[in-house]
Amino acid sequence: MSYVLRHHPEEIGLTVNENGWASVDELLDKARKYGKNIDRKLLEKLIEEGGGKKRFTFSEDQQYVRATYGHSIKVDLQLNPKTPPKVLYHGTAEKNLSSIIEKGLNAQSRNFVHLSVIEYDAHEVGSRHGSVAILAVESGIMHRDGYVFYQSESEPGIWLTKEVPPKFLNKL
Ligand code: HQG
């Protein structure tokens, strides 16, 4: 689901609109043709439980589904800018540190840099990449300086921003 709705809908021939929405019927149909036998009930369960995180959401009429963060495909989730907490956290691999300290955090292949409200969550995110390093982000000061932040619509502990220049980063 993450792979298709965030990164490669074309792989199963799925249409994702400019706001990231895919038709539920089409998703189930294309997934079935791809050999993944998912019905609506299982999809609902996936969206509710999603491996501990709310990664997807249904549209109000329940006919469409989208990933709520993490995209590399160009989508406009129509999120409203919001004032972030004073400090947010980012977990990364130790091996990325020298580059991050020099260039800052950038979104790499995704549309946004992903930041966590809780340091422990940043640790979990970073450990996906190897030996972990945690950075504290001066999000309050960044916001005051005009940087725009968004909060995930389904996971309030995840914040999104386009970049974090080095001067706003502190290695913990
Ligand atoms: C690093 C998951 C070198 C960055 C997670 C990270 C998250 C740099 C990696 C969400 C750099 C990109 C996103 C620079 C950034 N030089 N490395 N200048 N700037 N990086 O996977 O934040 O579980 O694209 O530190 O939980 O790890 O899938 O981003 O290590 O919320 O729902 O480049 O994906 O969500 O890695 O993860 P990623 P991320 P799910």
UniProtKB/TrEMBL annotation:
<keyword id="KW-0520">NAD</keyword>
<dbReference type="InterPro" id="IPR042081">
    <property type="entry name" value="RNA_2'-PTrans_C"/>
</dbReference>
<dbReference type="InterPro" id="IPR042080">
    <property type="entry name" value="RNA_2'-PTrans_N"/>
</dbReference>
<comment type="function">
    <text>Removes the 2'-phosphate from RNA via an intermediate in which the phosphate is ADP-ribosylated by NAD followed by a presumed transesterification to release the RNA and generate ADP-ribose 1''-2''-cyclic phosphate (APPR&gt;P). May function as an ADP-ribosylase.</text>
</comment>
<comment type="similarity">
    <text>Belongs to the KptA/TPT1 family.</text>
</comment>
<dbReference type="InterPro" id="IPR002745">
    <property type="entry name" value="Ptrans_KptA/Tpt1"/>
</dbReference>
<dbReference type="Pfam" id="PF01885">
    <property type="entry name" value="PTS_2-RNA"/>
</dbReference>
<keyword id="KW-0808">Transferase</keyword>
<protein>
    <recommendedName>
        <fullName>Probable RNA 2'-phosphotransferase</fullName>
        <ecNumber>2.7.1.-</ecNumber>
    </recommendedName>
</protein>
<dbReference type="InterPro" id="IPR022928">
    <property type="entry name" value="RNA_2'-PTrans_KptA"/>
</dbReference>
